[in-house]
Amino acid sequence: MAKPLAIVTGASTGIGYHLADTAARNGYDLIVCADEPRIDQAAAEFRRHGVEAEAVQADLATLAGVDKLYAAIRGRPVEALMANAGRGLGRAFLDQDFGEVRRVIDTNITGTIYLLQKVGRDMRARNAGRILITGSVAGFMPGSFQAVYNGTKAFIDSFSFALRNELKDTEVSITLLMPGPTETEFFERADMLDTKVGTQTKDDAGAVAQTGFDAMLRGDADVVYGLKNKLQTTMATVTPNTVLAEMHRSMAEPGTAKR
């Protein structure tokens, strides 16, 4: 019998890589996607688990990139979609290049929900499937010096719960994974290595991925990795936004790594 198929985006490094590796170890064939050539090497490593792994290099900030990934499915039933691709951007909003701003929005929001709609429709038609969306605890806080990224994650966090409710009478489950700062290339790519959050000790990407994968299989609505992050999200619901913004500033303002 054919193995179940999982799609993982942002799978060349970080949480996405470990989500794909976990799925492979659990017997899923893979279609893995990233916007860099390293996705080919990652796919080769996943095949060591005795599964098929097809690499798709595509820019998921574009509709054409999402279409390229979707075409690779070739009509095969998707048992699990792990929509993990994301992009960060540090520093003050007024100092950012708007092309980079737009790329964060289009990767984190536009491309993500376009892929979710295309694959989600197929799952609904079959009345079967599991979707894991990588949000963030950042969605609970106004992100001073990371304003666009936090705003996109606030959208994704909210969107995930809404989509889950719309599908509550089906056998399609939506699970939201909300990591905190995690040991990946995120902060280097976001130009945040001179910030407190960029230099502090972070969570292990493999452990975060395993937590999200397990929650997806259970059909949980959401999961926050780590006690510290759980406390942070709980406190954020009762703390004034002005206070949260100042707290975030102390972590993400350029130069805070030296203070």
From TrEMBL:
One of its GO terms (cellular component) is membrane. It holds the Pfam family adh_short. PROSITE patterns: ADH_SHORT. InterPro entries: KR_dom (IPR057326), NAD(P)-bd_dom_sf (IPR036291), Sc_DH/Rdtase_CS (IPR020904), SDR_fam (IPR002347). SUPFAM superfamilies: NAD(P)-binding Rossmann-fold domains. Residues 4-184 form the Ketoreductase domain. One of its GO terms (molecular function) is oxidoreductase activity. Keywords: Oxidoreductase. PANTHER family: DEHYDROGENASE/REDUCTASE SDR FAMILY MEMBER 7B (PTHR44196), SHORT-CHAIN DEHYDROGENASE-RELATED (PTHR44196:SF2). Belongs to the short-chain dehydrogenases/reductases (SDR) family. This is SDR family NAD(P)-dependent oxidoreductase. It comes from Enterovirga aerilata.
